[in-house]
Amino acid sequence: MRHGYAIHMYTANKSMDNCAFCNADGDFLIVPQQGRLFITTECGRLNVSPGDVAIIPQGFRFNVNLPDGPSRGYVAEVFGTHFQLPDLGPIGANGLASPRDFLAPTAWFEDKSYPGYTIVQKFGGELFTAIQDFSPFNVVAWHGNYVPYKYDLSKFCPYNTVLYDHSDPSINTVLTAPTDKPGVALLDFVIFPPRWLVAEHTFRPPYYHRNCMSEFMGLIHGNYEAKVDGFLPGGASLHNCMTPHGPDTKSYESTIARGNNVGPHKIIDTMAFMFESSLIPRISQSALESPFLDHDYYQCWIGLRSHFTVPELKTIKTKE
Amino acid sequence: MRHGYAIHMYTANKSMDNCAFCNADGDFLIVPQQGRLFITTECGRLNVSPGDVAIIPQGFRFNVNLPDGPSRGYVAEVFGTHFQLPDLGPIGANGLASPRDFLAPTAWFEDKSYPGYTIVQKFGGELFTAIQDFSPFNVVAWHGNYVPYKYDLSKFCPYNTVLYDHSDPSINTVLTAPTDKPGVALLDFVIFPPRWLVAEHTFRPPYYHRNCMSEFMGLIHGNYEAKVDGFLPGGASLHNCMTPHGPDTKSYESTIARGNNVGPHKIIDTMAFMFESSLIPRISQSALESPFLDHDYYQCWIGLRSHFTVPELKTIKTKE
Amino acid sequence: MRHGYAIHMYTANKSMDNCAFCNADGDFLIVPQQGRLFITTECGRLNVSPGDVAIIPQGFRFNVNLPDGPSRGYVAEVFGTHFQLPDLGPIGANGLASPRDFLAPTAWFEDKSYPGYTIVQKFGGELFTAIQDFSPFNVVAWHGNYVPYKYDLSKFCPYNTVLYDHSDPSINTVLTAPTDKPGVALLDFVIFPPRWLVAEHTFRPPYYHRNCMSEFMGLIHGNYEAKVDGFLPGGASLHNCMTPHGPDTKSYESTIARGNNVGPHKIIDTMAFMFESSLIPRISQSALESPFLDHDYYQCWIGLRSHFTVPELKTIKTKE
Amino acid sequence: MRHGYAIHMYTANKSMDNCAFCNADGDFLIVPQQGRLFITTECGRLNVSPGDVAIIPQGFRFNVNLPDGPSRGYVAEVFGTHFQLPDLGPIGANGLASPRDFLAPTAWFEDKSYPGYTIVQKFGGELFTAIQDFSPFNVVAWHGNYVPYKYDLSKFCPYNTVLYDHSDPSINTVLTAPTDKPGVALLDFVIFPPRWLVAEHTFRPPYYHRNCMSEFMGLIHGNYEAKVDGFLPGGASLHNCMTPHGPDTKSYESTIARGNNVGPHKIIDTMAFMFESSLIPRISQSALESPFLDHDYYQCWIGLRSHFTVPELKTIKTKE
Amino acid sequence: MRHGYAIHMYTANKSMDNCAFCNADGDFLIVPQQGRLFITTECGRLNVSPGDVAIIPQGFRFNVNLPDGPSRGYVAEVFGTHFQLPDLGPIGANGLASPRDFLAPTAWFEDKSYPGYTIVQKFGGELFTAIQDFSPFNVVAWHGNYVPYKYDLSKFCPYNTVLYDHSDPSINTVLTAPTDKPGVALLDFVIFPPRWLVAEHTFRPPYYHRNCMSEFMGLIHGNYEAKVDGFLPGGASLHNCMTPHGPDTKSYESTIARGNNVGPHKIIDTMAFMFESSLIPRISQSALESPFLDHDYYQCWIGLRSHFTVPELKTIKTKE
Amino acid sequence: MRHGYAIHMYTANKSMDNCAFCNADGDFLIVPQQGRLFITTECGRLNVSPGDVAIIPQGFRFNVNLPDGPSRGYVAEVFGTHFQLPDLGPIGANGLASPRDFLAPTAWFEDKSYPGYTIVQKFGGELFTAIQDFSPFNVVAWHGNYVPYKYDLSKFCPYNTVLYDHSDPSINTVLTAPTDKPGVALLDFVIFPPRWLVAEHTFRPPYYHRNCMSEFMGLIHGNYEAKVDGFLPGGASLHNCMTPHGPDTKSYESTIARGNNVGPHKIIDTMAFMFESSLIPRISQSALESPFLDHDYYQCWIGLRSHFTVPELKTIKTKE
Questions:
Q1: Quick check: B310 and D180 CB within 8 A?
Q2: CATH number at residue A22
Q3: Residue D140: which domain range?
Q4: Is residue E203 situated within a structural domain?
Q5: Does the interface ipTM go beyond 0.95?
Q6: What is the pLDDT of residues E45-63, one digit of tens each?
Q7: What is the least distance, in Å, from the CA of A181 to any CA of chain E?
Q8: Which residues does residue F52 pair with via DSSP β-bridges, in sequence order?
Q9: Distance in Å, alpha carbon of A178 to nearest chain E alpha carbon
Q10: pLDDT tens digits, one per residue of D62-98
Q11: pTM as predicted
């Protein structure tokens, strides 16, 4: 499968019954926002709560049970590569997501007859089914490192500036599905977790920008600092490649009003995330026609005004 | 020249007169701790104050003038490679030392006769002299990027954990002279600048450790957080490869007394630095016999005692 | 041309007359299964028998003569890369295919008029023709290493386990058309030649598996060890990405019956091969509608049954 | 520490008492040939029998107890790099040493007073001591992958030719301490384990050669196939860079007498090994003066004679 | 955006008024052939004359003014990568295009209201518009190296053979948009500038060839040496992948008539260029239907005849 | 053997009789300046004339016969690496030394008794001897690419600027023994062959410079353009790392007198060469005490004077 990705938002009302799913095309990164997922895989079972993420690699058969009733959330699918930890560079031995916090299941199997058990296989973008009369979860033992796993986002150890300036969001990369070009991911999974803000002499919220990445954001719980209203848990925004964006008018004006030198401040009770890619996504027809589409999103920036005053010519001249 | 390095501590009482120096063996990284250096090079002139560092690459002729009288400080010399900025990894586009803050001189020359002008050349570890009757600073213009430059350490943008845990000192790398093996430098130049400490549930001072790097530390001004007394500006310590070290007893005990959950704290007025290498340095005879050698350094750790209590067996068992 | 490949099965009834072919899109790897190919190229002539393979790189004009009458076989086409020998790793200086066994032609030319000589060029997936009145095989001499070549598969030096366990088929790679990711080929050409089997305490036939590669198999002569009947020379099977497959029921049951500790055994008179790719192939309409399609292939696995007995709990417990 | 290595042969008569050793210069690979080693490290305890090897990385403190009485064996020390598994290339997912067979210790500690406990530290090629009054094995828990480990050589899965020709010994690489140049190791650890020999039309014993590597061989138990007498368990041979060597006269003549087409043969009860390096070792004075030096080693090749007959000129001519 | 490129020929009759363009898909390399372009970008202004080229990277908003009236020329667009200088290899420190000749603009801004100002954004191959009431050129200052720039082609320092043989056109590479495979560009920008020809014993014009690259040529001024008539400034030719091409009949015959040993000759007043890619371009419908399409181009080669005489067999034999 | 090199100047008066030499430490590159060398190796025989160079890789046994009587010349020895062709970069498929011009010997052997035949082996910098009673040149056939070879320097295809400026000598690299750092060789073998000079507006002779490489020059025949007298065939000069050098006073003044715009000029009858290394060589005692040492070499630069006139301040100002 050539390099690529897909982003889905899911709502699941009932558990999978007498069937399993298998993605022959790529890997799933699942971000439940509401309702636990109890995932049975050929390597064992994973209990995935909102605040956790689960990765089901290409080719694994799995069944999802909903112990809490309906569940909703986000799924990213990557083709032609796998998620990995970013190379930490000067961050060194500690920081961001730690390998030991990614949990693989203990081997579990059932040697059981299931008449009419259905395997649904996603292959080449289409769905195929096969019927068998036994459980696919009959793997007695396994070794290796090609396995499903989960990660609790609250284990993330965020880094950031501790004096001045504003960090690139890449500092919050949990996992990356790389391309061959360093720094240009097929898909980065980035979070905005609770953390201390201490930067001085700066504009602390995410700055206004446009860039070569397409940014899909979601919110797991709490608020997102750059959108004081209108961005709710379970919602999503998409800021595409080279489309300018930034804080809404209210966030901006209140930041300006506070001034640039507020002291340390801890952001608590929040967990936003971003799927960020160097490939521009196409929007599906169903998304474009969804009743949940926010046609007024652009209004969050209405009323933005310049706070810049052109300095007098004399001032500029002295710099030459 | 094969890969290698040398670390010097210098005390200069007078300006260089009618002479220039040239290092054919490697590059100098100069860290004045007291007294400005006014350095004339073939590419132009650099005014280097304490708090700045200057790099004079292999083969440049230069003359040092002392506008403030005597100067002292530290010099690292690297052979077979050059200093470069570390690859920032997830830190991304901002953070640590920024390329635009490294300042190269404007071309400057003199077309002048200087009878008896002496060039002192360090070549193969020995000093040679040549006499000429004109200034070596007769380069009218230049282009390229092999040039002397300086950097003001207060421009450094420090990153660190903003929630919990303790960072590896590599996070404070200003410049690195790499080897072929990522993460294992020939010589890293690392600083401990003013910054906010916000980590929770952790022991904030540098932790006790031994590692594969040999660490030479110096102090430019202020105090160093892990040695409450006894480490003075202009001093130096060397903790060699796999030799355990850490905070002195007083720093340790006062940290323990404070507990692990103190709030945000800003370290101000300090500028310590480290030259860190994967090659074990040999100590020169003159250093070993120096009247300034601190024979009692080990005493800073006398009195350290364990605060650990072995948990009852029952507690351990429940983890199985 | 972006990276890609195509696999063809050919039947040729007569020699190419007064014409030459040229593939502007990619390289051909030709595997005749029946009937020799006498290939004239701009660099000289290759006599290719069943058991040999020939590679005609992108852009070479060539003519094929059938000295034995009709010929049939397999052709792989790779786009955007070329075939190369695999990096042998610990296998070292000897083993698998040796560079000296790949034979390039001696320069040969004709200075001759051929009225109406037609060049058929495959370009961008379409065929174009040009008429000229002279032979294209008018290259008097050449040098370089971009040339057609052939290889006799019986020169292959197979490696495998010589004690226990079961090897990955990559151990039998003759040529690989790589991608940028080590271990994930655009197209591997792998053979299953005569060889000794000596592994103890193991299931010797190819094991049941599904994986990220799509596997197209063919048979040049003899039998294939995992399909006791039904896989004939000139035939082909396709096991696509993440579709489970393995020995047919008869092969499996007879292996089980023999037990795991049979002694050395030499497989003779066989030459199966595999084109294996990390990109999922689309099947052409003509293949799907072919009268030769084996609609009952799946039946080779009917009747497979488990030989596994769940061990008693006590046994498992002693491992903790 | 620059790249380098050392090879030692040890004889230990008693356990280490109230002391621990630490190598600040490099890593130890320990190959006991006789007598178990019970090694206590800061990460836990390793029980190392003849047939196992243990690796103690740079900087770990450890104590060795001899539960069986005296022990002897071999130790390799590598500087500036670490041992790693070789990249398997076409061998793929299985074969040679498997990561899961390298065993790290479970955390173990003692919170105990030991008056006069001595740490012996090897630093810069010299030994230093420090006295403390507590056990250094007070590490309560650990995580990471920089740890001592052991490997049972009987788990090795040997690969080799299964048809004809003779393999390069690199096919038996257990661990390699690489240089920057692929295929040219600082130190390879290679074994010659029990295995099937099936090659046809070839000279099966190690062939006569000279090469760019220096080869130190030892024998753990059994016989070594190329030296029918005179190479005993616990012994060692050194064939230096570009010094020709090969089977002794008896092995050679008996191979010739058997002819080239003997059938499958299983070598059992043997475990020879090789430390192989691209750097020429200097021999220590004590080794050169050892009463165990075999001054007559060269005699094993006395009496070798040519079995080659120059073919008549006519035969050669036909190849042109 | 996946790797790709597009080539456009433009004719502009009037300046852009109250609007700006932004390419979210890739970078523009603009080659004006007639009429200056005065380009205003967010980073400042570039004055681009015929003989200069300008690069506007992905995402920059810009406005083009035509100070000389109508302008025409060529534009290449690259997706998924950026143009860079080729690695010079043995050419070393000097030669071809020098980094210091690529000129970035000085920051320039306007703080001005423009009712109805339109931003036209190319995104995913389609055009979108947005209306705003202020100038987008309100960037007061900038730093970094992601900027628009221009280059004067007459600064190019051409290299070539100075004794015999004929150079590959890659020797004239100004800028390259690389793929991951060295030597196989996504798009090379190559020029044929004024230069000395001194090669002896050779056919000096571009030789007849076909190759894996698709070659689009244009002419900025003067004549192109391989087409004595019919290739005019502002024109273009496309020789696609593996399509043979070379000098027209007149150029060829006059070269043959001159013989192989003419002395030094300086080509003056010429500036042809080539966009060369390893990906085959599709031709747009509008180009195929253009009234400017030269349907008789192939006629430039009509009348080519062989000057080769088959040597007698005896001569060939002596080489064996 | 660690990376390193040695440079020797040899004078041989008689052929090697009943003996062979073998260098276990590294490879020889032999540059005869006077008198042919007839070299017999285990792979066959090489006839090496002045104007040719021969490479004898590490570990080959060879015998040298002098068919013309005494021979003299230069030998470079490289340790830890081998010579290879430079990566040509934009030079592309043609230019500099072509692989097909490096000639390996045809297999040749003798099956002959030679009582008292002596092998002299250089090992670890010392010489060892072994006596045998047969010719070592008993290798009947060979394959592979680790072989002795020779190259005729007149086949070199020199490249250079064909418009303006002055090339780096790296453009004339025949072979390079690389380090891990691109552009910084362990030893480059560079020649200054006959070629056309056409550069305009420039100072054509080698410019005055000092750099990080140490340059050993020799002359095979003719004159060297930068030393009008005093540099004779068979002589040598050494300009060490960061020691300034350039044309002698006469060459300089006559160039100045000619002016900068002389037309094309062909340098004929010359063959100078350079061994250039990034490692500073130590000079042997015998070289320092040689009666052939030129104690007055420095005098070639006596009398150099500046031709520069400081422009008036006004002129400089207008550039700002």
A1: no
A2: 2.60.120.10
A3: 4-281
A4: yes
A5: no
A6: 999 999 999 999 999 999 9
A7: 9
A8: F50, F152
A9: 14
A10: 999 999 999 999 999 999 999 999 999 999 988 999 9
A11: 0.95
